Structure prediction request, 171 residues.
Amino acid sequence: MTSRPAASQFKSGTQADTPAQAAEEAAARTAAGAPAAPAHPRRSLVTLKRRPEFLNVRGAARWALPAFVVEAKPRTRAIAEETARFGFTVSKQVGGAVERNRIKRRLKAAARDVLLEHARPNYDYVLIARRPALDADFAALVSDLAEALKRVHARSERPPRVPSRGKTAGG
Prediction:
C-alpha cells in the first residue's frame, strides 16, 4: 500500500497563476493519488435572493410547462455582474420541505446545464415549480427549460400588444 502525501502539500482552494502552474499542480495531484479536477469547471449560477428582485420579473414574458413556469425580463439598470440571474420558487402546495428542496435542486441543476447556451446576459429569470418537476425525467427538464428560454426570449423581443377595441353595443 502506498502512502498518500499530506493534504497540506497541495494548495487547496487557491488558483494557479499561470496555465503551466495549473498543469503542474494537476499532474502532481494525479501522481500522488489525489482525484483529478473535473474536465469542465462548474458553471456558477447567480441567483435572485430578495423579494424585490423576484417582483421585478413578475408580469414579464412568461412560458408555462407541466413541470414549471418560466418568467424572463431584461434588466433595465446595469449591475456589476452581466450574467443571467435565476430565481427559484416552490410553493408549499407543491409538497413538504424535502420535496420542495429536491425540486429546487433539480431545477437549479437544469438551469446550470442550459445557462451557457440559452440564457442571456443581463436577463433575470424566475422558475416557478410545479409538482411534476419532482418526478420528471431530468433530461426532459433540461430540454423543456431550453425550449422555454427560447420562447420567453421571442416574447420579450416582440412589441407589447395594444388591446383592440371591442364591438360597441350601439353599432
Summary: The chain has four helices and five strands. Residues 46-157 form a domain with the Ribosomal Protein S5; domain 2 fold (CATH 3.30.230.10).
